[in-house]
Request: fold
Amino acid sequence: MPKSLNIVSANCGKVTPGNVEEYVRAGGYESLKKALSMQPRAIVDEVVASGLRGRGGAAFSTGSKWAHLLEVRENPKYIVCNADEGEPGTFKDKLLLEKDPLCVIEGMTIAGRVFDSHDGYIYIRGEYRSIQHSFQKAIDNAVAAGYLGNNILGSGFNFHLHIMTGAGAYVCGENSALLNSIEGKVGRPRIKPPHLAEVGLFQMPTLVNNVETFACIAPILRMGGEAFHAIGTAESGGTKLVCLSGHSARRGVYEVPFGVSLRDIIFDPELGGGIAGGKELKFFHLGGLSGSIGCPAQLDTPYSYECLVRTGLSVGSGAVVVADESVCVVDYLKGVLEFFLHESCGKCIPCQKGIRQMYTIICKLSEGKATQEDMCLLKELACMVTNVSFCGLGQTSARALMSAWKHFEPEFAAHLNKQCPAGVCKL
Reply:
């Protein structure tokens, strides 16, 4: 199996974005044509067979989510694409939205056909302002060509797609907060249950999937669910778009089959190409700031949902931030906690106040002013925020801290003695 594949990203850079004629010549919309002749259950069965898991970070089984919604009888149902790509270090959805918007539109249209939904919404983050305009042009082109809108390809099926946006709040990447934002409410997470499949957008049954997840739907129908699954591992079907940044020699977005090693992703000449400037790898941060920090001893771990979890890591959003030996772990964590402090919506006290206190202690540690009592309190706060916060923002805000502490405890101890091994912190 090659270490990189172009399945979901096959058209990126090869067709003019939003050009329906070029997209069709490249095999686009063949899956939609196929879906229009299939029963909804048969389409869902292919998604189940594919082993596709949500590519936004939660990694929930897409097939299970679709099967659940198919059993819900209440109508109308809504299709929502989460394009609020706010996880730092993540820019793979941006690639698809910019370079191949029609693959996302086709996937959403197929979902609309499955659930007899007539309206879909794509929530594009506020910072992607230029993408909103180009994506609207792709929608208009698809409508003009008969692949979207009323009476799609003469089938009698109607599906309309609407672009929504927010003000840049990270918490709106959480599906229920995103739906609240679409409805014009404050973007804060909802209590679940009820699940969004029963009570979602406008209080109606709703399917919410990520950009990359919808982009996988057309390839799955084209090649078959089992063939898509066979590309990956037993529990991680297909491929994953990974985003290499930081001190990677070849920063960018790469599509890899599940099962390649972290060493391949970071060091293979066709992928990350190693560390910029020929320096040594100190750590890597997987899945965005809400993910865990890993060390060189974990490089031979296969990149798959099941294998990473067993080693305390996670796929998350697909981010791979690479750090060389010049980076101070404590200084890096200060930036992580500052981000979560800024993005906390304030709905619950454990997250709002707990993250602030953790940030305060990390700042003291960075300045060489922390005590052993501070470190004990920091661990207590990390445990409390993780276990008591209302939503995933607070629940994962201490993940980087605790994983770094596990791998770099001597560096934390050095800061207690007013020493920064990397020479970055001003002690």
The chain has a mean pLDDT of 96.
